[in-house]
Design brief:
Layout (H helix, E strand, L loop, with lengths): L1 H12 L6 H9 L20 E4 L2 E3 L2 H11 L6 E5 L5 H9 L5 E6 L2 H13 L5 E5 L12 E6 L8 H5 L1 E11 L4 E9 L2 E10 L18
Parallel strand pairs: 3-4, 3-6, 4-5, 6-7
Antiparallel strand pairs: 1-2, 7-8, 8-9
Helix pairs in contact: 1-2, 2-4
This protein binds S-adenosyl-L-homocysteine (SAH).
């Protein structure tokens, strides 16, 4: 508990988080619940932590930066691509309470199963974990107010753009490491894109892992 507050104080001091709701969520969700016992000593260190299947739980400052950039509000319907440990989804779930829900998609079934158990232990009841290629989204639950990717994609996967609500936002690390954290918002006349800074993430796999072939070549 003291370590968790220390981590959050540090993130605030370093300027990664300002929104009081995000700060409260970071102070509340026990990050150690999302790690194997052998990795728990690292739960409050500001670096990515191995979670199995060659994947990592993102560093706390990156999770904080993304939550800050997503502007999650009560009632929002959220899609996360890349469940990993489930920690990020638990925070998102808390930020959309009451009335909101999060569906998160993970490619590795073993990670999804562990994340589901951890989310249960953390009592994140408004988070649903699915196994599959998150680049395809969850058309049965669309439209989403917010969509975010926790793995780096060459470009925004087109099915995800289609599943965004008219005033929705999508946040994703784009490009090879180091990637840029890009936020796109839908507007009447197209898309408004902002670059929120440099970041490093594991790559998106699946159908949208490669840029589309240039039709002219
Ligand atoms: N937010 C996570 C970090 C996840 S790391 C956390 O807090 O722990 C990124 C995850 O994206 C990895 O678990 C990886 O397996 C997953 N991933 C990569 N490509 C994917 C795809 N196409 N669909 C769903 N998940 C994917």
């Amino acid at each position: 508990m003291a370590e968790r507050h220390q981590m959050v104080d540090d993130l605030v001091t370093r300027g990664f988080v300002q929104d009081p709701r995000v700060i409260r969520a970071l102070r509340t969700v026990p990050r150690e619940l999302f790690l194997e016992a052998s990795a728990r000593a690292e739960a409050y260190e500001d670096h990515p932590v191995w979670i199995g299947s060659g994947q990592t739980m993102s560093a706390p400052h990156m999770v904080a930066m993304m939550l800050e950039g997503l502007g999650l509000q009560p009632g929002h319907r959220v899609l996360e691509v890349g469940t990993g440990s489930g920690y990020h989804a638990a925070l998102a779930g808390m930020l959309v309470e009451p009335g909101g829900r999060v569906v998160t998609i993970e490619l590795h079934a073993s990670l999804a199963a562990k994340a589901r158990a951890s989310l249960g232990n953390a009592r994140a009841e408004n988070v649903e974990v699915r196994v599959g290629d998150g680049g395809k989204g969850a058309p049965d639950l669309a439209p989403f107010d917010r969509i975010y990717l926790t793995c780096a994609a060459p470009r925004m996967p087109p099915p995800l753009l289609d599943q965004l609500a008219p005033d929705g936002w999508i946040l994703a690390p784009l490009g090879d490491g180091p990637s840029r954290l890009v936020r796109a918002r839908r507007r009447d006349d197209g898309w408004f894109e902002e670059d929120l800074g440099a970041c490093a993430f594991v790559p998106l796999r699946g159908q949208y892992a490669e840029p589309l072939a240039d039709a002219s070549t």
